[in-house]
Amino acid sequence: MEVLIYMISTVMLACIGSFIGVCCERLPRNEQVLKGRSRCDSCENALRAPELIPVISYLVLRGRCGRCKAKISAFCVLIELATIAFGLLPLIMIGLTVQGFAYSAATCILIEIAVMDYKTMEISDLANVMIAMIGLVLMFVNGSYTSSLIGMICVSVPFLILVLFKAMGWGDVKLMAAVGILLGIQGVLLAAFFGIIVGSIAAMFMKLKKLRGWKSEMAFGPFLCVGAYAAMLFGPKCISLYLSLF
Q1: Radius of gyration, CA atoms only, the chain
Q2: Which of 51, 120, 140, 152 has the most CB atoms at less than 10 Å from its CB?
Q3: What is the pTM of this model?
Q4: How do the pLDDT tens digits run along the chain, 246 residues long?
Q5: Is 46 helix (H, G, I), strand (E, B) or coil?
Q6: End-to-end alpha-carbon separation of the chain, Å?
Q7: Does residue 110 come out as left (phi exceeding 0), alpha (psi in the -120 to 50 range) or beta?
Q8: Which residues contact 163 (CB under 8 A, 6 or more apart)?
Q9: Which residues pair with 64 in a beta bridge?
Q10: In angstroms, rounded to a whole number, what is the distance separating the alpha carbons of residues 98 and 79?
């Protein structure tokens, strides 16, 4: 039975990943997401149903259009594979529980946020609301009212202060408020810590490689998403390890 659930979850995650890929390609170009079939960029023919199967179609067609044989971007299939891999991990590590499925769903949204923020420097309010709604469900299931409510403000309020100094964006504030509801006070603090560490390392690397100057704008949302994902999977273990030192 568990094997069947994992198989169904894999298929669903692949479909979600395909939709995320479409969103991340069309929205920056101000194109409709729910209307219009996907098309080949070269011959502009609408892709047929057999060409729209997540991952499989790309592999069968060897990354080329079925009609004009032009090379197809691997962007969407990479998003699909990432969604499958990262979405399954919470189910494997936490189990086929309400929390496991909630974290798997949140992972999909975090992937969308990370990619879109990287491409457009904007975080969708809808995506943040969806994470908050998942967090509210877990809050009622686990009875973690105090932790979630404090988690909602303990990182987002300091980030809000940074917004006033133009060192942070509003989207980051809303994201951490949503993550705070989802993970609670300890989880959101870890998420912010991991995100800041990863973001700082990335900024130093780009500076050393002269990819950006110190004053250049850099999307911070992707690093916060990485921090939130790490906190979801490893937060309890990290906290237990930390407390064992005392």
Answers
A1: 19
A2: 152
A3: 0.90
A4: 888 999 999 999 999 998 998 888 887 877 777 666 666 666 666 666 666 678 877 777 777 766 676 677 788 889 999 999 999 999 999 999 999 999 999 999 999 999 999 999 899 999 999 999 999 999 999 999 999 999 999 999 999 998 888 778 899 999 999 999 999 999 999 999 999 999 888 888 877 766 655 445 678 999 999 999 999 999 888 877 776 777
A5: strand
A6: 42
A7: alpha
A8: 169, 170, 173
A9: 71
A10: 25
CA distance 179 to 72: 35
The amino acid present at 208, given as its one-letter code, is L
d(Cα 234, Cα 196) in Å, to the nearest integer? 16
C-beta of residue 180 within 8 angstroms of C-beta of residue 195:
no
* Contact (Cβ atoms closer than 8 angstroms) between residue 19 and residue 127: no
Residue type, 111: I
Contact 118, 217 (CB under 8 A): no
- Dig out the tokens for 148 from the structure: 């979630």
Contact (CB, 8 A) for 9 and 91: yes
| Residue 207, both tokens | 């500076």
Give the Cα-Cα-Cα angle 219, 103, 35 (nearest 5 degrees).
Answer: 65
Q: Which two tokens stand for residue 81?
A: 């594979």
Count the helix, strand and coil residues of the chain and give each as a percent rounded to the nearest 5: 75, 0, 25
Query: What are the tokens at 64?
Result: 């080329």
